[in-house]
Amino acid sequence: MLQVTDLQPSHLDYPNTLKAYWRDRSTPILSAIGAPELLRHRTTAIFCSVKCPGDLILKTYDLARNLRDRGVSTTSGFHSPMEKECLMLLLRGTQPVIYCPARSLDKMRLSKEQNVAIRDKRLLILSPFQGNQHRMSAALAQQRNQFVAAIADDIFIAYAASGSKTETLAQQIVAWKKPLLTFKSGDNQNLIDLGAQIIHDS
């Protein structure tokens, strides 16, 4: 069984960005599986709504490969279909990946690829949830996404459906004055109107 470590706010590797942006609630004790020192890297968060337009799927595949090949540290809940595909691509590299599930880490089952990446100290599984929160819920997922955005240095959203929780998250990121990135596309006009920076296709 993999060892779960608690990270107190006083821990050397506790993310300072979380202390800065988690203002509306008490700073949580984090649970971690893997190497906490991966939190020292500058990190890009990846988000995408459940249903992603086809052209943006291809662009996001290319972006994930580019981040992997450039050695960029990434973080996400890796829950939506597009996010899961990104995780599969990212785990084939050697760069840091921080995976944040919307549940506590007790009794969590990992894939063979995840176990190998943890062994190689390039994957950290991180959660702000404790105790018996073993099942993901919509409320936990929403809180998890805010957590991921808070610990990241910049945030890329491949697509946020109009009126979705991902769009609401984008509004929170803009209110935090954190860098919000997306692709130029008519499907992303809502994000662009919020002030998202357009990144070039990989």
Features of the shown structure:
202 residues, Rossmann fold, 18% strand
Q: Could you say which overall geometry the principal axes of the C-alpha atoms support?
A: globular
Number of strands: 9
CATH architecture tag: 3-Layer(aba) Sandwich
Figure out the total of helices.
7
Q: Determine the fraction of residues in helical runs and give it as a percent range.
A: 25-40%
What gyration radius follows from the Cα positions, in whole Å?
A: 16 Å
Q: Which structural category fits the helices and strands?
A: alpha/beta
Top-tier CATH class: Alpha Beta
Number of domains: 1
Order of helices and strands: EHEEHEHEHEHEHEHE
Strand order of the largest sheet: 1-2-6-5-4-3-7-8-9
What summary fits the major beta sheet? 9 strands, mixed
Flag low-confidence runs. Answer: none
* Spatial separation of the terminal alpha carbons: 39 Å
Question: What is the name of the CATH topology?
Answer: Rossmann fold
Strand content: 15-25%
Question: What integer is the average pLDDT?
Answer: 93
Q: What would your notes on this structure say?
A:
It is a single chain. This protein is of the alpha/beta class. The chain has helices spanning 16-21, 54-70, 81-90, 112-119, 138-151, 165-175, 189-194; strands at 5-7, 30-34, 43-47, 73-76, 97-99, 123-127, 154-157, 180-183, 197-199. The chain has one domain (5-199): 3-Layer(aba) Sandwich (Rossmann fold), CATH 3.40.50. 36% of the residues lie in helices and 18% in strands. Helix 5 runs parallel beside helix 6. It is globular, with a radius of gyration of 16 Å. Keywords: DNA-binding. One of its GO terms (molecular function) is DNA binding. Residues 10-200 form the Smf/DprA SLOG domain.
